[in-house]
Amino acid sequence: MVDRLQITKNWLPRYPGMPLDNFGDYILLTNFRHYVDKFAEIFRCDILGINKPMQAATNSSGLTIINFGIGSANAATIMDLLSAIQPKGVLFLGKCGGLKKSTEIGHFILPNAAIRGEGTSNDYFPAEVPALPSFKLHKFVSEKILEHGHDYRTGVVYSTNRRIWEHDQDFLQKLKKMTSIGIDMENATIFIVGHYNVIARGALLLVSDVPLTPEGVKTEESDLQVTQNWADSHLTIGIDAMTEIGEKGEKIKHFLY
Questions:
Q1: Cα 226 from Cα 216, distance rounded (Å)
Q2: Which residues contact 160 (CB under 8 A, 6 or more apart)?
Q3: 255 in a domain, yes or no?
Q4: Average pLDDT score over the chain
Q5: Cβ-count burial of 23 within 10 angstroms (0-12 exposed, 13-18 middle, 19+ buried)?
Q6: SS3 46
Q7: Does residue 256 lie in a domain region?
Q8: Separation CA 27–CA 110 (nearest Å)
Q9: Which pLDDT band holds residue 216 (cuts at 50, 70, 90)?
Q10: Is residue 253 in some structural domain?
Q11: How many domains, in total, are found in the chain?
């Protein structure tokens, strides 16, 4: 196999154990197995890939959810592999650290852009290319957030490959200077690799911690509380948005240069 499409069509089923024909036109991406479990419970559908690197499920409406794991390398992998089926839209449901006083635990963020601090995206485009979501997809998601009675923030998030950085005072000062609204590990990669593969993409982030203060650093207990209080709403908004966007959302066009 020397053709890129041949490779991705062969490899995509390997990771979640799902045949190509089982993937829907719209995709929810997440880092959390329990989001996949809840999705399967709601729609009474099977979870594939139990013993594989990724788990996935598709409902009868043609919406697929995939747990791709953690980090920018995994984000790039799944966005590359999804080019095998050319989905009509991909929405990442992830968590992030809030870096502003206006972003408290439990808030939702629709990022306008992501700063490419993760490095993975450099393999796809030069550093000057901004990491952006698809505007029309985010516009529709924003409407769904409000319909569900929630507010949201917008702003630029910083994506990093570092998972353990909360102790690093120099890095914390760097984050403050960048005035980012949040920090995560995958957004910039998903936006850039989606752009590279001509895939409409977006992200709905749930603020899970406020790491600029010692008492705000995420712990197992605090993360469990976030999951219990807000994960169901996070998933429900994502499901509704990506179920209805094909019928009610504006048509998303791609322009190649």
A1: 13
A2: 117, 118, 183, 184, 185
A3: no
A4: 92
A5: buried
A6: coil
A7: no
A8: 17
A9: confident
A10: no
A11: 1
